[in-house]
Amino acid sequence: MTDSDDDIRSILSGMPDKFDILEDGIDFQTQKEYMELSHSYGHGELTEQETLKLSSILFSKNTPTEGKKKALSLLAHLGTVVAFRQIEKYSKSPDKELTQWTLLALRECRMFLESSLGDDDTGFIISGLGGSGDRLRYYFLVLPLLEKSFTNTQKDIIRDEFTIICKDFNSIIEMFYYSDNSVGLTILMPLDVAIGKLIETGIKKCNELGTFVFEYYYVTNQDIPGESEIRDIIKIIIEGEPEQS
Fold it and tell me: What is the 3-state secondary structure (H, E, C) of the chain?
């Protein structure tokens, strides 16, 4: 059975165009493992019957996790409507430990479907914090000047100035995380905006109202650090070395 363009377009029509940002965050180790396995396969070809037989591995309770990982990666590389539908079916109730793996397989299979239409090649963007639409999610941390603490008024200034700056950069603030010695933010930012420029512009605007924000900062799109990690991050930013436990 050969996929028709109409079949492929019916799948792609309900999905965002062009920017292929995976909305769900994928931890770095899963990203690395998936890509290493994925890159070991070529773009395969199987009949519909063979594809369904391969996908049956996913729905068997007797298949070990490693076997299901391989099956998902192989199905993704088939890049056919049948393969996509089988991964999609499994994604509705995946094994818990394979939830992120399944999301990657589904997105990679979609990428191959798009390529089969002859459109411009598209890849997909994955990160620990994910994204939304055509925006990638980032977490960043700003600090008070050395040996200082943020006052409540200064925290309000940071909130107000970064809210304005994010609008100027077509970005969206999702959350603020306040403490006396740091302010953390999670934002959604378009791919064509430099995250460093946004943060540095925000710091500059805050300091125009009374110099109180340290010029150096921390930013990542992989995870939101916990309290102990933040202490280490602050130590690195200020002194260039992690705090010793």
Answer: CCCCHHHHHHHHCCCCCCCCECCCCCCHHHHHHHHHHHCCCCCCCCCHHHHHHHHCCCCCCCCCHHHHHHHHHHHHHHCCHHHHHHHHHHHCCCCHHHHHHHHHHHHHHHHHHHHHCCCCCCCCECCCCCEECCEEEEEEEEEECCCCCCCHHHHHHHHHHHHHHHHHCCCEEEEEEEECCEEEEEEEEECCCCHHHHHHHHHHHHHCCCCCEEEEEEEECCCCCCHHHHHHHHHHHHHCCCCCC
Task: Point out the domain boundary residue: 116, 147, 166.
Answer: 116
The pLDDT of residue 36 is 80
User: Within a domain: residue 122?
Assistant: no
pLDDT tens-digit map of 52-92: 888 999 999 899 999 998 999 888 888 888 889 999 999 88
Does residue 150 share a domain with residue 108?
Answer: no
Tokens of 98: 């394979």
Q: Tell me the pTM.
A: 0.60
188 is in which domain, residue-wise?
A: 131-239
Q: Within 13 Å, how many C-alpha atoms sit on residue 83's CB side? A: 30
What pLDDT, in 10s, does the model give residues 102-130?
Answer: 888 888 888 777 776 665 555 556 677 87
**Mean pLDDT of the chain, nearest integer:** 82
Please report, for the domain that includes residue 152, its CATH number: 3.30.70.1290
